[in-house]
């Protein structure tokens, strides 16, 4: 006589077990995302403090010690960078900015390395290398309030920041101006700093023109497209 044996239970996950696994996966993804955001925020804070703010301090020390803005004439000061408003930068062929500062005893930020103090290397959201480059110049059409809701352009000395990812530009904008607006405040996008059109009522925010989904080669994992911003100096 055949003996009936109990049928084995089919292997697999119950709905409860699968739900627990999905919750754990979601928590892990959330923790990784939060950790990544915290890391990027810390990088932006370091760039703001150790590089951007350090260059602001160097510029202000130059003005206080020399009595003119960098490169201006001591005998006949104009209040403009280099006296003409032309760019004061470090390039492959010449280190005008570095030489001008050191000649007058101004200590420089550490930057990328010795001799490359006007540059700062960092990684974008895709983990690829980027580089910020600092330069000083005079813009003659910096938009400022005139009468009513109208604006007019006025000469202002600025620090140009090239090589900012959109995320970094927004974080620096928030740290410097206390809000994110590419047209107004001390830090502005290069395409909006001279916008003299009237503001609406109530005024609407002016976003930065790119985001970190924009890449140089069009691939999602490619190097993030960078932006240029102008930071108005106090003198």
Characterization of this structure:
The chain contains 3 helices and 6 strands. With 235 residues, the chain is an alpha+beta fold. The protein has one domain. Strand 3 and strand 4 form a beta hairpin. Helix 1 packs across helix 3. It starts with 14 loop residues before the first helix and ends with a strand.
What's this model, at a glance?
The protein is 31% helix and 20% strand. It has 235 residues and is of the alpha+beta class.
Q: What is the fold's blueprint, element by element?
A:
Elements: H1 15-66, E1 88-89, H2 96-103, E2 119-123, E3 129-145, E4 151-164, H3 166-177, E5 187-189, E6 227-232
Helix pairs in contact: 1-3
The computed structural class is: alpha+beta
Could you name the ranges where pLDDT drops below 50 across 5 or more consecutive residues? none
Shape label: globular
Order of helices and strands: HEHEEEHEE
| Average pLDDT level | 88
Rg result? 26 Å
Number of helices: 3
* Number of domain modules: 1
> How is the biggest beta sheet arranged?
6 strands, antiparallel
State the helicity in percent bands: 25-40%
Report the portion of residues in β strands. Answer: 15-25%
Strand tally: 6
The CA-CA distance between the termini, in Å, is: 105 Å
